[in-house]
Amino acid sequence: MIKIQYASISETGKRQKNEDAFRIVGMADGNRWLAVVCDGMGGHDKGEVASETVADAIVDYWRNEVDETDSKLKVERTCRKARIALDDCAFAMGHVKMGTTMVMASIEGDTVTIAHLGDSRCYIVRPDMGLLYQTKDHIRMDYGWEIIDRCFFSYRPEVCVPDVVQFKLKEGDRIMLCSDGLYKCMTNKILLANMMDEKSLDEILEAYHIRCEMQGDDNYTAVLIAVVLKIMPTWMLMSEYRFHGRVQ
Prior knowledge:
Structural class: alpha+beta
Order of helices and strands: EEEHHEEEEEEEEEHHHEH
Distance between the termini: 23 Å
Helix content: 25-40%
């Protein structure tokens, strides 16, 4: 049976506040896991509220619908619930215009379902082949500016259209979910080389942390997951590395 190890990091960086949010939850049977990273959209109000609201709504749906098998339809239903939660929150705050990106990985047995909206990314690497999968950013250029054209945004249901893919996992696979503040601090070559390093997950995230502190100007968040097959003590499977993030 597939087990996972994970580590996480979420830092404010050079910004005044951290508008990223992440969640990692697992079922009691140890055979189902969910990780979510959301990045509140700059240039709009209450990005930190948007990211927290969407992350919590996704986790709540996943926990409540434990009998529903992972699928594109389940992701779409999850996103609809999260979109409604964001609209309700915006209404309660006086019709605030706010939004967030989202990337999630739901592991069920030996299958992972990846879904994303916006420019937060998922990378999957495999020891014998390198990069197996990388999400494609939902952005377009408009007069020299990067515009996110798919995301969660209050009262904009038409832009909440997630991409969904599924993969069979193998021992040694690593999955990373991250906000753009992390991957924009380095080339893809450096990011992937670190992901595939034989160092511990903690040490890999420490390397990312150092580079982001030196070269970044944004919040940065990452959840790094390693797939293992052998049975290990619970305290090892639940290892965690974080700075100011929160794990549920």
